[in-house]
Amino acid sequence: MNPKTAEHHIAFAGGGTGGHLYPMLTLAMEFRRRIDCRLTFLTTDRPIDRDIIGATFGDDPAVEIVTLSVKPLPSRVGQVVPFIKAWRASVGLCRNRFATDPPDLIIGSGGFGSAPPIVAAGKRSIVTTLLNPDAVPGKANRFLARRVDVIYVQWPVTEQHLRSGRCVLAAGCPVRPEFASADREAGIARFNLDPNLKTLLVTGASQGARSINNVFIDNADRFAGCKGWQILHLAGQDGVEAVRTTYRKHNISAVVVAYSNDMPDALAAADLIVSRAGASTLAEIATANVPAILVPYPYHRDRHQYHNACVLEKADLARIVDDPVLDDRNGQKLIDTVVNLMADDFARIRMKQQDLTLSNRHASGMIVDDLLRRLAGNEARSLSSVAKRGNSESPPTDDVVAYTTLAGNHRHRRSEEVLLPDVRTL
Length: 426
Hints:
Number of helices: 18
Oligomer: single chain
CATH architecture of the largest domain: 3-Layer(aba) Sandwich
CATH class of the largest domain: Alpha Beta
CATH superfamily of the largest domain: Glycogen Phosphorylase B
Structural class: alpha/beta
Distance between the termini: 37 Å
C-alpha cells in the first residue's frame, strides 16, 4: 500500500502521558476500521509517545510519528525563554508540513502537546477538534477551546467551563473496546493470579506512584493477616523491587510488575482498584465497572484529578482518599479503606450497581461519526481549499503571548452547546 494514495489524512496532536495517548489511539483505530486513511502523530519528545504508538502500529507505512520540541507552560522565569523557542520551533515545523501535506483533520488529545498543531492549522481548511476528558479543563485546553471547531468532553459537568468553545459535545472518553469485553478468567490467567482469591489492583499509572507504593510498603503487616485476597501491584520501574521485596518478606500473595499494557485484563481480574484519578483512567475504570479508591495526584495546582474523582464518587463508584504527602494520616485512611472494602463484598457490589451512565462505551464510534460528517461538510465547502492555502496565517507571536499569559479575561464567543444522544438511551 502506498500511504500517499489514502483517501484521507488524519493528524493526531498531543501525548506525553498514557492518558493523552490512549484516547487518540482508540480513535485512530476506529478511523482505520471505517475509512481509508493515513495517520500522522504530532507528539511530544517524551519517549512514552513513540513507545506506545510504535507498539500499537508497528512498522505500518501509513502511520508517521513526528516529534515536536514543545514544552509545558513555564512555571518559573527561567523556563520562559526555552518554552518560547520550543513553541516557535514546533509551530513552525507544523506550518511547514501543513503547507505541503495538510491533513484533513487534526484531533488534539488535550494538554500542551496539542497546542502547536492546532495553532499552526490557523485559517487553513482543516477541521480541528479537541478531546477534553477532564472534568475541569486545564490551561492549555482553555486556550485551545476557541481555536477548534468542536470539543468532545467526557462528562456534561465540563460544559460550564468551556463557554469559549464554538461547539461542545458531551460524548464520553474513547476507551479501547477490550475494557468492555475482557473477562475475569482471562485476566487472572494473564497475570498468573489465584482464581480462588479476590484481587486488589494497585496502580500509579504508567510511571507508578511513589507515595502510594510507600503506603503499601509501610503497612504491609496489615495485609499479611488478610486472608481470601491477593494483590496485583503495578509499581512503576523505580518502585517494583522495593514493593516486591516487601510483599515477599511478609508472605503476602501478590504479583508485582513495573507496568502493563494489558490494563483491560488487569481491571477484569480486579475486585477493587487503588488508582490515581486521571481522566482516561477513570473512563477505563467506569467501563470495566470496577469499584475504586482514588488517590488524586497532589501536585497539580488546579487539582484536576480531584475534580475528576468527585464525578465517580458522586455516582458512588469510588471513594476518594487524599495523597499521604498532603497529610500523614491519609496513609492510614487509605489502608483502612482498602481493608474494609475488600472485606465487604456487599459494599463493592453496591458500588458496581451505581450510575453506569458514567461510561459511554460508544464514545469512539459517536465521535468518529460526528467527525466524518464534519469532514464531508468541509470538503463540500472547500473543493478548492488546496489552491487557497498559502501564507494567510498570522505570525505566531500573538499566540505565544496568549498561551503563556492565559489571563482568562479574553472576550470569547459564547459556545454553541450541542449534546450528543444521551448515553443512557444507548
